[in-house]
Structure prediction request, 64 residues.
Amino acid sequence: MPKLKTSSSISKRFKITRRKKMVRHKAHRSHLLEKKSPKRKHNLSKTVTVNSCDKKRLMLKINN
Prediction:
């Protein structure tokens, strides 16, 4: 049986830290930025850890 490929879209969107946490970027920061306040844009630029229930599902996709 051939080796299963990793989902490349998921591997680009999520990163795994040294402590095995999954990190992602927030949405709504790609366009239409004029109407958003600087504070809001700054908060959107931060990274967020993925919820544990989503992490289990995503790890199956990455490890394939």
About this structure: Residues 39 and 61 are 34 Å apart (CA to CA). The chain has one domain: 8-63.
